[in-house]
Amino acid sequence: MKLITHNMLQCHAKNCTKDNFPLKIEASEVAEQETEFNPEFIRRMLGRLEWKAFVSAAESLGIMGLPTEAPAESTEDEELLQLIHTALLEKQVIEGALTCNNCGHVYRVKKSIPDMRLQEDEV
Amino acid sequence: MSRPEHLAPPELFYNEDEAQKYSQNTRIIEIQNKMSQRAVELLALPEDRPCFILDIGCGSGLSGEVLSDDGHVWVGCDISPAMLDVALERETEGDLLLHDMGQGMPFRPGCFDGAISISALQWLCNADKASHVPKKRLKRFFTTLYSAMTRGSRAVFQFYPENPQQMELITSAAMQSGFSCGLVVDYPNSTKAKKIFLCLFAGAPEQLPQGLDGDEEAHTVDYAGRKGSRGRKGKKERAPVKSRKWITEKKERAKRQGKEVRENTKFTGRKRRVQF
């Protein structure tokens, strides 16, 4: 699971509507896979990311040095964009779990695929 | 034509054997690839901008490859672990989720620039478990999808409806969730090549009509005054009761209802003379 996906995921169990984002990452195995750097895409995503959640998730996976405030979409700082690209699209959680802060539901991550299915009584 | 939906639920039907076909059988790959290309074409994404797309029922990631080729970033979800394993093997670029779409999409509002789905939607019309109610699952799926998409974006579903009722079920669920929708049928007269695409539009259309600008006075309207009588709008004036006109109208009405009515004569509606 990449952090771009993590930044979009929220807990969707029954009656869990408040404080269901972001899911807490507990990673036991992390990997990095190189992908093509596309500064324009990163720039477009800047406005759409929950920046605080993104920074704390990146720090929990060992990527430091992201600014506390989201940079403007028109930013020309290639180095910063490259760092965001690495955190957003290259760093991956291979094994671990995602926990909801509100209801405590645990979504397991296996072979880099989070299991978002719910039990029947949680729908 | 055999329907896989009738054989087993999707997480069981797409087992290792079935999933292998999607990485080896060139015919299946070609068909999937063509349908994906057509779906992406219908999605009408802005050409020079990389977008963030959701692939629902991504399976082995064949449809995602078409998106990657166009430079878009995608996230896929599927209910079959075996199919996702094949996707991992093929090293697709998108991120994968194991998820049942009938449980709703677990995303924040306004995440995606678009969504595609190839041959997945018809599975939602099945009730594979006692707790499954297709109508509810469709509703939940479409409402959560609607909120996960940005305003003005599109979702394109290629699917195989079993009968018109199923199509109706799906489109009405989508429309109740706020989408405006339309069906695109490719090759409608061929049984083999016929493909049905459901196109959903989230929110307002991309282009609003332009407001007027320029010479202001030319477009103003003079006070025109009231026209005709001051009576109520839209209602015909009634003839006075028992007048000849009133009677003939009444007879006309009865005739139209199929009742037995005397023909009009010169005596119709005449008063009798006073008798002693």
Give a structural overview:
- The complex is a heterodimer of chains A (123) and B (276).
- Chain A has 123 residues and is α+β, with helices and mostly antiparallel strands.
- Chain A is 28% helix and 20% strand.
- Chain A is built from four helices and four strands, in the order H-E-H-H-H-E-E-E.
- Chain A is globular, with a radius of gyration of 15 Å.
- The mean pLDDT of chain A is 90.
- With 276 residues, chain B is α/β, with parallel strands linked by helices.
- In chain B, strands 3-2-1-4-5-7-6 form a seven-stranded mixed β-sheet, with helices on both faces.
- Chain B has helices spanning 10-13, 16-24, 26-43, 62-69, 81-89, 134-148, 164-176, 244-256; strands spanning 52-56, 73-78, 95-98, 112-118, 149-159, 180-186, 195-201.
- The mean pLDDT of chain B is 86.
- Chain B is elongated.
- The chains are: A alpha+beta (123), B alpha/beta (276).
Q: Numbering strands along the chain, what is their spatial order in the largest sheet of chain B?
A: 3-2-1-4-5-7-6
H and E string of chain B: HHHEHEHEEHEHEEH
Give the overall average pLDDT of chain B: 86
Strand content of chain B: 15-25%
Features:
heterodimer; A: alpha+beta; four-stranded antiparallel sheet; 4 helices; B: 276 residues; alpha/beta; seven-stranded mixed sheet; 8 helices
Please write out the topology:
The complex is a heterodimer of chains A (123) and B (276).
Chain A lengths: L2 H4 L17 E9 L6 H8 L4 H10 L17 H13 E9 L6 E5 L2 E2 L9
Antiparallel strand pairs in A: 1-2, 2-3, 3-4
Chain B lengths: L9 H4 L2 H9 L1 H18 L8 E5 L5 H8 L3 E6 L2 H9 L5 E4 L13 E7 L15 H15 E11 L4 H13 L3 E7 L8 E7 L42 H13 L20
Parallel strand pairs in B: 1-2, 1-4, 2-3, 4-5
Antiparallel strand pairs in B: 5-7, 6-7
Helix pairs in contact in B: 3-4, 6-7
